[in-house]
Amino acid sequence: MVVYQIYPRSFADSDGDGVGDVPGVCSHLDHLQWLGVDALWLGPINPSPMADGGYDVADYRGVDPVFGTVEDVERLAAAAKRRGIDLLLDVVPCHTSIEHPWFRDRPELYVWSPEDGPPNNWRGAFGGPAWSQDPHGRGWYLHSFYAEQPDLDWRNPEVARELAGVLAFWRAKGVAGFRLDALQQLLKDPELRDDPPATGPSLMAGHPEHEALEHRFSSDRPGVGQAVAALRAGAGDDAFLVGEIGLPADRHAPYLEHLDASFCFELFFAAWEAEALKDAITAGLAAGKASWVLSNHDFPRLADRIGRANVAAAALLLLALPGPVFLFQGDELALGNGPGRPPGALPAPPYDRAGRDAFRHPMPWTELGPHHDFTAGTPWLEVVNAPEGSAKRQRVVPGSPARFVRELIALRRRLAGPVEDLTADDGVLSFRRGEHLVAVNTAGVERRAPPGGDVLLATVNRSDSLLPAGGASISQAV
Ligand code: GLC
Prior knowledge:
single chain, about 25% helix, eight-stranded parallel barrel, TIM Barrel
């Protein structure tokens, strides 16, 4: 299964307001079908004050007018289905927006301090205390992320009931599954004990204040499986559920009991180095149900993290692994980071205070045309073309990143069997999958290619015996 991640604000704008929307996604489904993906994951589209790019939901059953309507989502689900593509929505069960009516009217759904002040040392993921004073004067509430995102109390069965209802609501609209946000944050210590100081780096490269603590009591507490089970019950057994769990893969088991997949962030954060990549893949495979991802809306784009010269090899590695694979929009174009928030603009919505705008620039659809045809208006963030050209150009230029990704997706359908490590030269990651051999050169210099049969697909002109720097290939096993 290959899932294409869409950041709704930045995919395609249909009405000229400069912001991508659901009808815009509908009008570009041909691109997804051309690539050959099986599903699309649409980032949050619910009504939101956008303090966190829509991850601050003010109504789980609505669609923000900037993105369209509930009917637009139904139309998208049906249109995608006709092309053999499933629609997955992003659901944020850990917290709501502070502007969700529940926060005002049903405070019992949230986590409160028993004292008149923060009861412990917990920190928010973006820095600062995880406790803030309630604007309605009811004390102090918990927020694992921004202060505009109060945490729901998953120890209150009403919360599970409400969120399960949300998933059932969207299933009835034709949605096939969900990406579940920040699951490690659902359950906290009921005694609210202090987090101890960190003894080493955590998996997710977060804010330094957050990283200074080990999140022993502020996240991932026993019983979390029950919360995830409630989400499964709401979604139905046939829904595809992938969890974002910001923990090492060997701690995913209680979640995975009720999910189809979880993101293996070991691979995401591994240095572009054969041994590190191998360890990351091993960790994901050992946990079971790993899904693979090398890029998303929260971190610098692949080209900027591992170097443009390695992007094609990374795509080959990603798409050669067994289990679901996630591709972030623009990765098929080898799009790089953009400049981010325009100079002089305030760090306020729609811009991200944690500095992630640079990874969220709109898609360049055409070479010419105003704003590369992302919008007929003024784009919310500048549209920056990929060095190899827009989607339209890359679809016709032989050897373009997009054509390569498309060929990989097609070849992937023939890959079967488990990952079996092979020995290879220093800096070369090589494994077998049934009848096929995969080799990825991370050394930065030419290396000997592991012996194999016919090369079926390669990043750069590899000869029978040599793998150039940045080279990777899939060949027939002999
Ligand atoms: C997830 C999202 C991120 C968001 C956070 C809080 O990690 O990917 O964008 O800021 O959750 O909802």
